[in-house]
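S.,

Sequence below, as promised.
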Amino acid sequence: MKNRKLAVGLGIALAVLIAAAVIVWGAFGPSSDKGDISSSVSSSVSQSQTEITVKLVLSDGEEKTFELKTEKQTLGDALYENGLVSEEEYASGFYTVIDGVRADYNEDGAWWCVTKGGEMTTVGMNEQTIENGDSFEITYTPA
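The prediction came back faster than expected:
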């Protein structure tokens, strides 16, 4: 009698677990688009990303265009996050090397001119805020 009660209790518990699994699978399974956790997470991440364009104009006039995606809020942060500037220069806020190209005022008088919409920015790259769709030009400027 005792074994029979134990078997019935285990059977009921198993049935409840299976029913719960079916309900969860129906709500979050691969064929369901409602309540899909992975799509909710990825859409919220993609909505918080900012996309900007950075055109690097080199000393010989060659142009390199970078489409950057970031969750950061400044141009300097986006450049660092995407590997275009070193940690040391990012930390100092004084950029001499961008994407491996040096423009060092102390060595040869060259510097990087940053423009947005054709206008020179009025703050450094670490302070220059960015918004989705912004375009910047960073131009090698000789002495």
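Residues 2-46 form one domain.

Coffee later?
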